[in-house]
Amino acid sequence: QLEEAFASHAKKTKLHDVCEIKKNFKDADFWMVRSHSDTGVGKPVREYKEDYIGLRVRDSYIDKMNADFLYFCMTNLFNRGVWKNYSSGSTKLQHLPIAAVKMFELGFMDE
């Protein structure tokens, strides 16, 4: 059972499968705030800053994923407080690890 559960998890589409994700990424489709208070960490924005996490849909996924739709999805996750669960730090300054963003599962891509 454990092997089946691991295999099922390993097959799920992760955000890094669909997007290039990195800091200091001027050519990204949009960015996520990496360091902020717990009310702003993970917020998707259309403004580049060096410290923000940039996301750009990979060419191999362009026919399956629209960058504007992904931005909307990330905004929805932010509004629901999902990224707070992945961040760490003090009460005043939270940090969202790039690894958490990369490994985030996009369940709707596997349906």
How does this structure look, described?
This protein has 111 residues and is an alpha+beta fold. Helix content is 29%, strand content 19%. It has helices at 2-11, 15-18, 67-79, 98-102; strands at 19-23, 30-32, 35-36, 44-45, 53-57, 88-89, 94-95. Strand 6 (88-89) and strand 7 form a beta hairpin. It is globular. 20% of the residues are buried.
Q: What is this entry, summarized?
A:
By secondary structure, the protein is of the alpha+beta class.
Secondary structure class reads: alpha+beta
Query: How does the major sheet shape up?
Result: 4 strands, antiparallel
Radius of gyration from CA coordinates: 14 Å
Q: Proportion of β residues?
A: 15-25%
- As residue ranges, the low-confidence spans are none
Q: Enumerate the strands of the largest sheet in spatial order, edge to edge or round the barrel.
A: 1-5-2-4
Shape: globular
Fraction in helix: 25-40%
Q: Could you give the order of the helices and strands?
A: HHEEEEEHEEH
Overall average residue pLDDT = 88
Quickly list its features.
111 residues; globular; single chain; alpha+beta; 7 strands; four-stranded antiparallel β-sheet
Please give the structural blueprint.
Elements: H1 2-11, H2 15-18, E1 19-23, E2 30-32, E3 35-36, E4 44-45, E5 53-57, H3 67-79, E6 88-89, E7 94-95, H4 98-102
Antiparallel strand pairs: 1-5, 2-4, 2-5, 3-7, 6-7
